[in-house]
Design a protein that fits this description.
The structure holds two protein chains of two kinds. Chain A is mainly β. In chain A, 0% of the residues lie in helices and 52% in strands. Chain A is built from no helices and twelve strands. In chain A, a hairpin with a 5-residue loop joins β5 and β6. The termini of chain A are far apart. By secondary structure, chain B is an all-beta fold. Chain B is 0% helix and 50% strand. Chain B has no helices and eleven strands. Chain B starts with a strand and ends with a strand. Classes of the chains: A mainly beta, B mainly beta. At the A-B interface, β5, β6 and β11 of A face β4, β5 and β9 of B.
């Protein structure tokens, strides 16, 4: 069965520091991979996606993620965190033959220290 | 562009009451989804639809029903609300093998 694990429930970083949020997935074929961000009281906004091709994908707000098939990982990174990046981040995996369904990780809450 | 609109945004129900949540999208998307979000559990798929007139069960369908009579609308019904259904409900849509677009959520409390 497909599954997504985000090992870190809560992360705190200082403003200006680098960030890496971890995501590991379990899926038998090449997955579609996504990172979404959710600000308090809001819906989910797509940060970036991986379907195929270059394994390093760039997203909005200065985020990037790298697909590593050998490690079944799709970690999210940002070189310098801004206070406005404080939010909850969700990794999701989808399959092309299952009605576009997504399986979400549990989420990682990011706090940013001034 | 309205995108995905959920109605209502907030609701408080008593145990045993029924209600319907409405999701409307103006992007002509084929696929639509209902999720619930609970602390520490991410989003879990309740039901989904791959086109007008179709529905299918997701991961946590018990206690919910859905209908997709029109392509742009996807309704989620609770026939007899239970406290365990207190949650934030999100609707999403996609044209196919593309990222899903999400509404802003409906916060539902069952007393």
């Amino acid at each position: 069965a497909q599954s997504v694990t985000q090992p870190d429930i809560h992360i705190t970083v200082s403003e200006g520091a680098s960030l890496e949020l971890r995501c590991n997935y379990s899926y038998g074929a090449t997955p579609y991979l996504f990172w979404y961000v959710q600000s308090p009281g809001q819906g989910l906004q797509l940060l970036l996606k991986y379907f195929s091709g270059d394994t390093l994908v760039q997203g909005i707000k200065g985020f990037e993620a790298e697909f590593k098939r050998s490690q079944s990982s799709f970690n999210l990174r940002k070189p310098s965190v801004h206070w406005s990046d404080a939010a909850e981040y969700f990794c999701a995996v989808g399959a092309g033959n299952q009605g576009g369904k997504l399986i979400f990780g549990q989420g990682t809450e990011l706090s940013v220290k001034p | 562009n309205a995108g995905v609109t959920q109605t209502p945004k907030f609701r408080v129900l008593k145990t045993g009451q029924s209600m319907t949540l409405l999701c409307a999208q103006d992007m002509n998307h084929e696929y639509m989804y209902w999720y619930r979000q609970d602390p520490g559990m991410g989003l879990r798929l309740i039901h989904y639809s791959v086109g007008e007139g179709t529905t299918a069960k997701g991961e946590v369908p018990d206690g919910y029903n859905v209908s997709r009579l029109k392509k742009q609308n996807f309704l989620l019904g609770l026939e007899s609300a239970a406290p365990s259904q207190t949650s934030v409900y999100f609707c999403a849509s996609t044209p196919g093998f593309q990222p899903q677009h999400f509404g802003d959520g409906t916060r539902l409390s069952i007393l």
